[in-house]
Amino acid sequence: MRKRPIGQKVDDSNVAGEETATQVCKSACLSLWDSFLMLDHHYTAQFAICATKESSLANLRPFMKLLEISCHGVPWILGACILFLCCHEPHDIEVAVNLLFALIFDLIVVGLMKMTFQRGRPSHNIMDMFATASVDKFSFPSGHATRASMMGLFLCLHLFKNHLLMLLTIIWSLSVCTSRVLLGRHHIFDVVCGFCIGVCSYYLYQQAWVSQETILSYLDTYFDHVHL
Questions:
Q1: What secondary structure letter does DSSP report for 190?
Q2: Cα–Cα dist 74/132, whole Å
Q3: Which of 132, 80, 133, 75 shows the shortest CA–CA distance to 102?
Q4: CA distance 69 to 21
Q5: What is the pLDDT of residue 117?
Q6: Which long-range contacts (CB under 8 A, 24 or more apart) does 1-8 make?
Q7: 69: closest CA among 154, 160, 185, 158?
Q8: Does residue 67 register a pLDDT over 50?
């Protein structure tokens, strides 16, 4: 391979050509992304049929808000704590503790992602949600969607054995995700990504699952006096 003689200048036209190609590629990617976001905004507005009292299906808004509350983090965390206090079998305690930790893990993941991306909610959204935090002003990803998919998997794989209950859980999970768009809370992209993030978070948490032996070793005194 022939080396370039010392002092020989690099061909400025080649460098300029490479920079131009990079800029064109970057510009094309940004243009494509902007077009995608415009479509996301457009179809989100089209499907927000319960967003306000003037919407075409405003009469379904109370039902959508009921779905919203059914997947809110506060009731779920309280429910996990109550489940733990009511458990008497070691396996049930293991499930209750891991349910609580999984919920906390979900809150941390969603909170960090909201603070990182800081995408605003749809313009037609009415901020009348129950018990919101400061990061809830951001839209990406949908926390309800992540929790619905994560808890749907958790319940079907660790709590419910009855096929009917599992089917109802899947229907509930998908209904919650759909309601986020119909209610005007999130863009479609936020919900789809939120659902996928919830699935990934569940399998990621599975790698850190706290075993029954570990839990009972930490809760031995409490377990002996309260649960038995």
A1: H
A2: 10
A3: 80
A4: 50
A5: 93
A6: none
A7: 185
A8: yes
Q: What CA–CA distance (Å, rounded) separates 48 from 37? A: 16
Rounded distance, CA 91 to CA 85, Å?
Answer: 13
CA pair distance 41, 46, nearest whole angstrom:
9
Q: What's the pLDDT score for residue 228?
A: 46
The packing angle between helices 12-47 and 163-182, to 10°, is 110
Contact 209, 181 (CB under 8 A): no
Of 123, 176, 179, whose CA–CA distance to 149 is shortest?
176
Q: Name the pTM for this structure.
A: 0.83
Which residues participate in catalysis according to the annotation? 144, 186
Distance CA 99, CA 160 (A): 13
Contact 65, 176 (CB under 8 A): no
